[in-house]
Amino acid sequence: MLLSVQQISKSYGARKAVDGVSFQVRPGQTVGLIGPNGAGKSTTVAMICGLLRADAGSITLDGAAVGLGASAAKRKIGFVPQDLALYEDLSALENLKLFGGLYGLKGALLKARCEQVLALVRLNDRAADLPSSFSGGMKRRLNIAAALLHEPQLLILDEPTVGVDPQSRNAIFDTLEALQAQGRSLIYTSHYMEEVERLADHIVIIDHGKVLADETPAALYQRLPAQAALHVELAQAPPDTLLRQVRALPGVTGVERAGARLDIGLGDAVHAAPVLAWFNAEGLALLHFSTARTSLENIFLNLTGRSLRDTPP
Ligand code: ADP
Q: How many helices (H) and strands (E) does the chain have?
C-alpha cells in the first residue's frame, strides 16, 4: 500500500470538518475524492500533505508516518492546491526553477526536469512567458508542472478544474492520464462525478467529514437502483393508468413523466427492448425514444437524498 489514511479527524473550533476518514491508495492507483462543497476534501488532503495536523488518526506513506515536518514522506508527495501559487512577475520557466530549487534540484538536472514537466503539461512553447499572460487553465497547468518537478510517487490535486477553460481541462486530463501510464498514483478531489469517474479506479465519497462509500466506479453503479434509462416521447401526455402499467413492467425501477415524455429507469439495459415492444403492442406510437446509461452523478443523491451541487454543471 502506498498511502494509508486511518481514522483521521480535524475540527475547526466546534466544527468537525473531517470525522474519522479512512481510505487507501495502492501504487499506480487513482483515487477520486468526491463530495459537495464543505464536505472536508481540502482538509483531508491538507492533512495527507502534512500541511495541517490531524487531531486524531494516522497517515502513512510507504509505511512511514506523514505529519507536520515529516519531510521524507512529504518528498514523495506532489500537491496542487486549490489556490494557485505562482509568481506573476517571473516567467513560467523561472517559476519552475524557483520551485525546483526548494526541492534541492539544481544545475542540469533542474533544467532537464523543468523541460520534462513543461512538456507534460504542454506549456513548453510558453516557458519564457509570464503567468500573468496565461489563462486560468494554463496557470493551473503550470502549478501541476511545479508539483511534478521532484518526481513524486503520489500527486494530489485539489479541485484542479475549478475556473479552467475546456481546452485546458482536456490538457489537464491528458497530463493526468500520461502520469497514470507512468504508474504514478493520484488523488483527485472534485465535486464533479463525471471527472472523477473518467480518471479514478477507486471513488471515495465524503459528506460532512465522513466516508459514505469507498468503491470502484463499477461497484458504485451496482448500488444505483437503475442501471439504464429509457426516454420515450408519446404523441400526448400519458394518463396515470399508463404510468402505473409501465411501472409494473419487468425490469422497470421507476417512471417519471414530463409532459408527453416518460423517463423510465431500468434495472438493466436489456429491459429496454421489451418495454419498447410493450408500447408497440399497446398501439402507443412513439415520436422518439433514446436509451442512456444512468449517471454515477445520481449515486450521491441516492446515498444522501441531496444532490452533489446546488446547480447542474
Ligand atoms: P471541501 O474541500 O470538501 O469543500 P473543506 O475541507 O474546505 O471542504 O471544509 C470542510 C469544513 O471545514 C467546512 O465546513 C469549512 O467551512 C470548514 N473549514 C475549512 N477550513 C477552515 C478554516 N481554516 N477555519 C474554519 N473552518 C474551516
A: 11, 14
